[in-house]
Amino acid sequence: MIYEYFSNLTGSEVLASIISAFLPLFLFILPFALIAVLLERKVSAHMQDRLGPMRVGYHGILQTIADILKLIQKEDIIADQNDKPLFNIAPVLVFAGSYAVFAAIPFSSSYLGSNIDLGLFFIVGISGLVVAGILMAGWASNNKYTLLGAMRSAAQLISYEIPTIMIVVTVLMVTGTLNLKEITELQSGYFWNWLIFGGNIAGIAKYLLIPFMFVGFVIIYISTLAEVNRTPFDIPEAESELVSGYHTEYSGMKFAMFFLAEYANMFAVSAIVVLLFFGGYHSPFGYLGNTLGLSWLVPIEQLFWFTFKGIGFVLVQMWLRWTLPRLRVDQLMAVCWKYLIPIAFVNLLIVGLITLL
Amino acid sequence: MITEFGKIFVFILVAIFFVTVAVFVAKLLRPSRPTYEKKLTYECGEDIIGSPWVQFNIRFYVVALIFLIFDVEIVLLIPWAYVYKIFGITGFLVGAIFLILLGLGMAYEWRKGDLEWSRPAMPKLNVNKNKVSEKVKDK
């Protein structure tokens, strides 16, 4: 465990916890955001038969760094009508909400910020901080676009939280635990032990679970897509009608913080899907480290597999963004309340019956 | 001794620290030359008309109310999902009855039209259906 390692090295638990809390930020979120912003532009460009950024560095690989340099130098405008304290607190809340999610995500068997028993429940709960931050940003900006964007965003986030939690309860019924590390350990071994293939359960129940787990995966993927405000669910920041939604008034570094939080969230929801249904950090084909007898290689392989699966789902999000048109607001609500929630309801009851077999 | 929730608290502190430092560093580097136009809230470059505190669609409120009911239900369901296997089929039925009652409530809301969002009105086509079908028959 990384935490124990630092605690032995520095001799202080407080210092160890501070170091291990900084690790995902500097080793993971910032490099991920750097790559993902460029990747998003490149993917969209190639899907539309364009080239995308080409000037800064070879094929534009330094484009994001140029963007960051630009954002640091941008003037931070606070308009007279803005509510200044709330306006400044909002980006902090949004980023804190999306970063706290990473505390409970096990990146590999040896790195986990906090091994709490209610990990999954905590993640769903702490995401509520983002809703508060978004509403605060929209409200404090005192602007028509931001207020409308924030209201839509809040309505969408809370609506799509219900199908998400229902699938979380479904998974809880199968695994009997909300501790993310235990859920992952239940899916150890080869890929047919993943929950999407019925999990590590003996007997006929495993095969009966497969279709219902697949339905659960589809529902949670759609609803988490809506929770990070990605297309086709991006009416909160629909750029053709609302300029850019709740962060219209923000500029410079505060805008960059919203952007960073959005990309952190994109990976966080993909990570939740991976942890619940695709074996978390476990390799689908066993470990090279075990075969060669190098025990230190296993956690590194696990980190690789977790990032690999997570970024795979992020790429699917980008793919969907440039493939599907935006939903209208009534369609958005209809998808959630009339399709996802009833299906998740029935799914929950059936999975409950199967686990009793 | 730091508990597991203490570590989460450290995570939140680190996030707050990071945002504060980033904004502060940018403040040292960036220019600050506010003018009258810059200090207006953004409205596509025009002067601001009216207040942003406009009336909102009542649906937002209804959605929040329905969400509240479902959220309370979820809070009750999670402890149930932990323990129902101990009681076997009886434990399952207790939760199932609760869920079915909630489903009935949802069906009532659906029937009353509380889940309908106002749709854009479709322009009515002024076509006589009989005439169209006759033309199709002629062909």
Total beta strand runs of chain B: 0
β-strand number of chain A? 2
Low-confidence stretches of chain A: none
If strands are numbered along the chain, what order do they take across the biggest sheet of chain A? 1-2
- Low-pLDDT runs of 5+ residues of chain B are none
Rg measurement of chain A, Å? 21 Å
Number of helices of chain B: 4
The biggest chain-chain interface is: A-B, 81 and 70 residues
- List the secondary-structure elements of chain A in sequence, H or E: HHHHEEHHHHHHHHHH
How would you state the average pLDDT of chain B, rounded?
79
Shape field of chain A: globular
Q: How many angstroms separate the termini of chain A?
A: 37 Å
How large a portion of the residues of chain B is in β-strands, by DSSP E? under 5%
Secondary-structure-derived class of chain A: mainly alpha
Count of domain modules of chain A: 2
Mean pLDDT of chain A: 84
Strand content of chain A: under 5%
Largest sheet of chain B, in brief, is: none
If you had to describe this structure to a student in words, what would you say it looks like?
The complex is a heterodimer of chains A (357) and B (139). Chain A has 357 residues and is mostly helical. Chain A has helices at residues 2-10, 13-47, 63-73, 84-100, 119-126, 128-141, 144-175, 180-186, 205-227, 239-242, 252-277, 288-292, 297-321, 329-355, and strands spanning 106-108, 111-112. Chain A has two domains: 1-73; 83-356, no CATH class. Chain A contains 14 helices and two strands; from the N terminus they run ααααββαααααααααα. Chain B has helices at 4-29, 59-83, 88-112, 129-138. The N and C termini of chain B lie far apart (86 Å). The chains are: A mainly alpha (357), B mainly alpha (139).
